[in-house]
Amino acid sequence: MRTEEARPIRLEDYRPPDWLVETVELDVLLDPTASRIRAALTLRPNNNGSAPAPLVLNGDALNLRGLKLDGAVLPQEQFVATPDRLTIAQPPQRRFRLEIETVVDPSANTQLSGLYRSGAIYCTQCEAEGFRRITYFPDRPDVMAVYTTRVEADKAEAPVLLANGNPVAAGDVPGTTRHFAVWHDPFPKPSYLFALVGGKLACVEDRFRTMSGREVTLRVYVEPGKERRCLYAMDSLKRAMRWDETAFGREYDLDIFMIVAVSDFNMGAMENKGLNVFNDKYILASPETATDNDFERIEAIVAHEYFHNWTGNRITCRDWFQLCLKEGLTVFRDQEFSADQRSRAVERISDVRSLRAHQFVEDAGPLAHPVRPAVYREINNFYTATVYEKGAEVVRMLQVLLGPENFRKGMDLYFSRHDGEAATVDQFVQCFADASRIDLGQFMLWYSQAGTPEVVATGSYDGGGKTYRLEVAQRIPATPGQSDKQPMVIPLGVGLVGRDGRDLPLKLSDGRVIERGVLTLTKPAETFVFADVGEPPVPSLNRGFSAPIKLSTNLSAGDLRFLAAHDADPFNRWQALQTLATRLLVDNTAALGTNRAPRQDPGLLDGLGATLADGALEPAFVALALTLPGEADIAREIGHEVDPDAVFAARTELRARIGEHLAGPLFDHYRRLSESRPYRPDAADAGRRALRNTCLDLLVATRRADTISLAARQYQAADNMTDRMAALATLSLCDVPERTAALEDFYNRYADDPLIVDKWLTLQATIPEPATLERVKALTQHRAFSFANPNRVRALIHAFALANQKEFNRADGAGYDFIVDIVLALDRKNPQLAARLVSALKTWRMLEPMRRARAQAALQRVAAASSRSVDVDDIVHRALAEG
Question: Over pLDDT 90: what percentage of the chain?
Answer without folding.
Answer: 97
